[in-house]
Amino acid sequence: MASRRAIPHLTSLRQAARPGITALLPSSKSPPPHLIDVREPPEYASGHIPTSKNLPITSSPDALFLPADHFLARFGWPKPPKGDEIVFYCRAGVRSAAAARLAVKAGWERVGQYEGSWLEWEKNGGEKEM
């Protein structure tokens, strides 16, 4: 299983640029953050960052507002607790920024975004799961 250190290019959101979203920097904290790929299922199936879970934010914008049991039934993995860190990524950073804003509205405080997202990860030779 990949650790948080397996995300070498994780960048933080700046409070001034994106009000209400807490900056998240790489560290050796335990447990690692929940890494969430917000691309659509066919994009996710074509390759994703190891340990990431798929949450297609475009087709499921209500996902983070669902009760935990509905979330599990719809997506097949447990909804992250609101006290945990969550980090979003997509293809180029647009959808992940939207997901981060939705997470803050839904009550998460420890929210981050991998700004370079999948394109940067792939360009830099990051490990890929199918």
Distance between the termini: 14 Å
Domain module tally: 1
Give the helix level as a range of percent. 25-40%
- Beta fraction of the residues? 5-15%
Structural class: alpha/beta
Write the topology of this structure.
Elements: E1 34-37, H1 41-45, E2 53-54, H2 68-75, E3 86-89, H3 94-106, E4 111-113, H4 117-123
Parallel strand pairs: 1-2, 1-3, 3-4
Descriptive terms for the model:
Oxidized Rhodanese, domain 1, four-stranded parallel β-sheet, 130 residues, Rhodanese-like_dom_sf, alpha/beta, globular, disordered N terminus
Task: Walk me through the structure.
This protein is of the alpha/beta class and 130 residues long. The protein has a single domain (33-123), classed as Oxidized Rhodanese, domain 1 (3-Layer(aba) Sandwich). 25% of the residues lie in helices and 10% in strands. The protein contains four helices and four strands; from the N terminus they run βαβαβαβα. The chain has helices at residues 41-45, 68-75, 94-106, 117-123, and strands at 34-37, 53-54, 86-89, 111-113. The chain has a four-stranded parallel β-sheet, covered by helices on one side. Helix 1 links the parallel strand 1 (34-37) and strand 2. The radius of gyration is 13 Å and the shape is globular. Mean pLDDT is 82; it is low at 1-26. This is Sulfurtransferase. Keywords: Transferase.
Write a concise synopsis of the structure shown:
By secondary structure, the protein is of the alpha/beta class. It is 25% helix and 10% strand. It has one domain: 3-Layer(aba) Sandwich (Oxidized Rhodanese, domain 1), CATH 3.40.250.10.
